[in-house]
Amino acid sequence: MELGAFLLAVFTATSAFAAGRGVSFRAEDGRTINAIVFEPSQRPSPAVVLVPMLGRPKDDWDALGQRLADANILALAIDLPGTSDPGDSKVLSGWSADVRAAVLYLSSRQDVRPGSIGVAGASLGANLAALAAADLQSVHSLALVSPSLDYRGVRIDSAMKQYGGRPAMLIASNHDPYAARSVRELAKDPPGTRETRFSDTTAHGTLLLIRDAEMARALVEWFQATLR
């Protein structure tokens, strides 16, 4: 094989690996949920569901998903059921069913270590992650990036109390006032470990992780420490 063709083949294979691969599974109502999975080289492994912001695709998690896979943690990035606010807080809260379906999908995979599943969400995705984790004891670790105590009627204070003593990391930018205040409120008198991280980067949700490498590193290390 010529050198140029060889380098192109290596680049293509590396790019395909970095992009993860598509998978699909069923939601409780029978809908098909499309996702991207980033698989580590050593398995069985811990696993994490990645939930995006409202109006943003699962691809926002590509870099973080690959970093998790490089840290020997399988990552599953999902899309939300819609790209805009349905205008009904009950419907919006109900989107957490897709997060629960993703957790159950991971639980069914033989290459996922039992008892080692986490969830990370950004902005609305953080609130949906909290709602799903509160209902599922199989979720052993949580990371909320730019959460809101109340996102358009989707409240998470009760969900985090129900989540109980299981560990949670709470991340926000100091330049994102409501998210930063929400993190501080959620970290008050917790029933379990609540690690808080504040960034001086002006960004929200997954964009904060993309722009602040330290926050991305901290999130990966969090799941390495809490999903054994």
How would you summarize what this structure contains?
41% of the residues lie in helices and 26% in strands.
Helix-strand blueprint:
Elements: H1 3-18, E1 21-26, E2 32-38, E3 45-51, H2 62-70, E4 74-78, H3 89-94, H4 96-108, E5 112-122, H5 124-135, E6 139-145, E7 150-151, E8 154-155, H6 157-163, E9 168-173, H7 177-186, E10 194-199, H8 206-211, H9 213-226
Parallel strand pairs: 3-4, 3-5, 5-6, 6-9, 9-10
Antiparallel strand pairs: 1-2, 2-4, 7-8
Helix pairs in contact: 4-5, 5-6
Describe it for me?
The chain is built from 9 helices and 10 strands. The longest helix is centred in the N-terminal third of the chain and has 16 residues, at 3-18. Strand 5, helix 5 (124-135) and strand 6 form a beta-alpha-beta unit. The N and C termini lie far apart (43 Å). The protein is an alpha/beta fold and 228 residues long. The model is unreliable at 1-18 (pLDDT under 50). It has an 8-stranded mixed sheet with strand order 1-2-4-3-5-6-9-10, with helices on both faces. The chain has a two-stranded antiparallel ribbon with strand order 7-8. It has one domain: Alpha/Beta hydrolase fold, catalytic domain (Rossmann fold, 3-Layer(aba) Sandwich).
